[in-house]
Amino acid sequence: MESHPKFEELKEECLLFPDHAEQLLQVYLDLVESKDFEDVHVIQAPLLERCLIEGLHPDNSNRYLVIPSLVSEPWSVAKLDDTFSALSMEQDPRLKDGAASRITFGVVAADSTITYLNLQRSRPRKSGDAMASATGTG
Question: What's this model's pTM, rounded to 2 decimal places?
Answer without folding.
Answer: 0.82
